[in-house]
Design goal:
Blueprint: E1 19-29, E2 35-46, E3 50-55, H1 62-70, E4 82-87, E5 90-91, E6 99-103, H2 114-119, H3 125-130, H4 133-146, H5 162-174, E7 180-184, H6 192-208, E8 212-216, H7 220-226, E9 229-233, E10 240-245, H8 254-257, H9 260-273
Parallel strand pairs: 3-8, 3-9, 6-7, 7-8
Antiparallel strand pairs: 1-2, 1-4, 4-5, 9-10
Helix pairs in contact: 5-6
The structure holds adenosine-5'-triphosphate and magnesium ion.
Adenosine-5'-triphosphate is lined by residues 28, 38, 56, 58-64, 74, 76-77, 236.
């Protein structure tokens, strides 16, 4: 929901958070020597809970920006090369305690049960101190109900489908009740039907507890179905090519997805993506 327009409950004050990217530049060592500029002066402000979709041609720097926000640092480069990331107005150099990431590869531990995979962060110092065990056990049971895995709590990831594994990863992230949720093509490896189910699940879970989501996708339809705001990056080096809001309550019906309004948004996104010189994939599933 845009915090302003959705019919879902207004976010609790505790979830309010702001992120500011100021003049972000990222350069990496190039394989043939020298440097490659990947991100070129990106300025972005996220001021409230909402689902912010980040699109751009393959290789333009989407993951670079998301990892930067999540404090995931590459071994071979200072990041950002220049510019600042401010969270709640404070410059942030590392992983922020209130943010979690969900990746396309769901990174569940094969040796742990579904329950223990979701419980994993609570066994680490930061979260152990924050949430008492009785509470996190209750939260996990509730979350497994919400994501439809209550009867699978004792199974291992190898006994689950790809979609179920991604539910585990989503549960592990959301059970922490993060103020910032960073998602890097989380549904990109799933088939169309499972992807749609996961989008609806995310909408439901988000309504229960809104937070600031930055969601990278290649899928234009996914951006239209989920986004309060759509940010499109230019080909590398990434600059902001477009940035607009979609003020329509979720879930967004297939009728809306075929409406003139949705079509205009789609055209607007594709116009930018098609400026990329030929590489990469764009998906439109309507
Ligand atoms: N640590 C690194 N060292 C050198 N080059 C890197 C490093 N990380 C990323 N790159 C390069 O930076 C560019 C942007 O990478 P990034 O992963 O951010 O793109 P992306 O937009 O997420 O692409 P995709 O849509 O394919 O996931 C690519 O050319 C990539 O090869
Ligand atoms: Mg990427």
């Amino acid at each position: 929901m845009s915090a302003q327009s959705d019919s879902s409950p207004q976010p609790e004050a505790a979830t309010a958070v702001s992120i500011e990217l100021k003049d972000i530049v990222q350069e990496y060592p190039a394989s043939g020597g020298g440097i490659t500029r990947v991100v070129d002066g990106v300025n972005l402000v996220f001021e409230r809970p909402g689902i912010n979709m980040l699109l751009g041609p393959s290789g333009c720097g989407k993951s670079t920006i998301l990892h930067m926000l999540g404090g995931v640092r590459p071994m071979n480069a200072k990041t950002p090369t220049s510019g600042k990331i401010l969270i709640d107005g404070v410059e942030c150099h590392d992983a922020h305690d209130d943010s979690v990431m969900v990746f396309q590869r769901y990174s569940n531990r094969p040796d742990l049960s579904v329950f223990d995979n979701v419980a994993f962060p609570f066994r680490l110092n930061l979260w152990k101190k924050r949430v008492p065990e009785a509470e996190w056990r209750k939260r996990i049971s509730d979350m497994l109900e919400s994501v439809g895995l209550a009867d699978k709590r004792n199974l291992r990831p190898s006994q689950l489908s790809g979609g179920q594994n991604q539910r585990v990863a989503l549960a592990r992230a959301l059970v922490l009740r993060p103020r910032i949720l960073l998602m890097d093509e989380p549904f990109g490896a799933l088939d169309a039907q499972t992807r749609e189910e996961m989008q609806l699940l995310l909408i439901d879970l988000y309504k229960e507890r809104p937070c600031l989501v930055v969601f990278v996708t290649h899928d234009v339809t996914e951006a239209l179905v989920l986004g309060d705001r759509v940010i499109v990056l230019s080909p590398q080096p990434a600059k902001i090519a477009d940035d607009f809001t979609i003020d329509v309550p979720r879930p967004r019906s297939t009728t809306w997805q075929r409406s003139e309004e949705a079509l205009q948004h789609e055209k607007r996104i594709l116009a930018q993506l098609h400026k990329a010189p030929g590489k990469g994939t764009v998906r439109v599933t309507v």
